[in-house]
Design a protein that fits this description.
The protein has about 325 residues and is mostly helical. Helix content is about 70%, strand content about 0%.
Length: about 325
């Protein structure tokens, strides 16, 4: 039985050797970039001793996890990360589909390319550039909002970088502006691949444009939406570090709303927000990262399980 399996494997390798060679660079990259660093997970359970090395360093068990959950930091960073991720995932899905529907209605070829370029362009901007664009708008002394918009509306000036509650809306707006163009591409591709005869049949039946979207377009791209949603659930416990660190100018006054797992881990590694960077800081950062990864993997499986119960054909695995 084993000989038959080995022989069959050899035949498949010979048959698909060209495809396997194409996969080789990506496979090596994934192993080096994604799997080899997993060895560092041990740091979450050991007090690193540079002289002894990681393997021989003293084992401290779950002490770093106890530190993480012994204060309000775990609740704060988890609440902020999950809350914003839910808004980004579901709000981003709605906006991406809406933008794709609007772009699909643009008939002029040059006009469509122009609008696509304008919408996608923010995604290619450095997050540092984006942070200064936002700062130019929200700067308390010279920003556009305080000097032009709010006075025109008869409203008082706002100290944007010291008012955490305002960033509950500001961060999603910046995120959608940056990501909507790229996110809509896959939905636009799905829409353009729909059989035109379905729309012709809907028009014959007297369907309006809104009804065509509701009963033809959305059902046809629903599998893409579900798969994208399942994949995005894996990032529910992850945040865009640049968005929460750079755009907010790392203002400590905004931490109650903008402090996420990623920014907390960064400050743990650099000593920011703590007395100083230390060996324990590496362990605490590793514990936070492991907590983030394990819960993220669980959420992907759970989301796929729920989708599988609703409609097995839409499940990812």
């Amino acid at each position: 039985m084993v000989k038959i399996a080995i022989k069959r494997l050899g035949k498949n390798i010979c048959r698909y050797k060209a495809m396997l060679l194409m996969m080789l660079p990506v496979t090596v990259f994934v192993i080096i970039n994604n799997y080899m660093p997993m060895f560092g997970v041990l740091m979450a359970f050991k007090k690193l001793d540079y002289g002894k090395g990681l393997l021989k360093s003293p084992f401290v068990g779950l002490s770093y996890f106890r530190f993480l959950f012994s204060n309000d930091a775990a609740w704060r960073i988890t609440r902020n990360t999950v809350g914003f991720s839910f808004v980004f995932i579901f709000g981003g899905l709605v906006i991406a589909v809406l933008v794709a529907l609007l772009l699909n209605e643009v008939r002029g070829r040059l006009a469509k390319k122009f609008y696509q370029t304008i919408i996608i362009m923010p995604n290619f901007l450095s997050i540092v550039v984006v942070s200064y664009i936002v700062y130019a708008i929200l700067d308390p002394a010279h920003g556009l909002m305080n000097n032009s918009v709010l006075p025109a509306l008869g409203a008082d000036k706002v100290e944007w970088y010291s008012k955490p509650n305002n960033w509950v809306a500001i961060l999603p707006i910046v995120n959608f502006w940056m990501t909507a163009g790229v996110s809509c591409i896959i939905y636009l591709a799905g829409i353009t691949g729909i059989d035109p005869e379905l729309y012709e049949a809907a028009i014959v039946d007297g369907a309006s444009k809104r009804q065509q979207v509701r009963f033809v377009t959305l059902p046809m791209i629903r599998p893409i939406m579900v798969i994208s949603l399942i994949m995005a659930m894996g990032g529910l416990f992850r945040s865009n570090f640049g968005l929460f660190y750079q755009v907010t100018m790392n203002s400590p006054l905004l931490y109650p709303v903008t402090d996420t797992i990623d920014t907390y881990v960064y400050r743990a590694l650099t000593g920011g927000g703590m007395a100083s960077a230390s060996v324990d800081s590496f362990g605490r950062a590793a514990a936070s990262g492991l907590y983030q990864s394990v819960v993220g993997a669980f959420l992907v499986v759970a989301a796929n399980y729920v989708i599988n119960m609703i409609d097995p054909e839409l499940a990812l695995f």
